[in-house]
Amino acid sequence: MVFHVSFFCLDARSHRYKTGHEELKILARLAAADPEDKRHCVRFLSSFKYRNHLCLVFESLHMNLREVLKKFGRNIGLKLTAVRTYAKQLFIALKHLKNCGVLHCDIKPDNMLVCVFILLASCCKICRIS
To answer: Tens of pLDDT along 19-40?
Structure first.
């Protein structure tokens, strides 16, 4: 069985390393509050330290919303049904964050990851909590 994951590594010398530990706690809390993975937040799987780097492991998603716009929008935008679907999923994710006492301060297309299932349905998940 092949299982694809994404890594986000923080160097101990960077200013993000310290905030990475706080993000680790937030991600664990969000995952625990959504065991069925229905709230459209990127799934945090694990973390580890390697050569003085904090590494966060997430589910692997295909592309971010900016890349989707470039690939499928072709300077005309996305279909209204896709926009409606992504907006609904974004609001579900934001409500989940609110219920967990988390405020996302950097919502932008780069932080919205998209997974396309056989080009019939798609799923948008919010990421980069801190």
So the answer is: 888 888 999 999 999 999 899 9
**Catalytic: which of 11, 37, 106, 110?**
106
Query: Which run of H or E residues covers position 73?
Result: none
Cα separation, 44 vs 6, whole angstroms? 10
The strand ranges marked E within the chain are 5-11, 44-50, 53-59, 63-64, 112-117, 121-126
Domain residue limits at 108:
5-126
| Residue 37 a catalytic site member | no
CATH number of the domain within which 106 lies: 1.10.510.10
- pTM here is 0.82
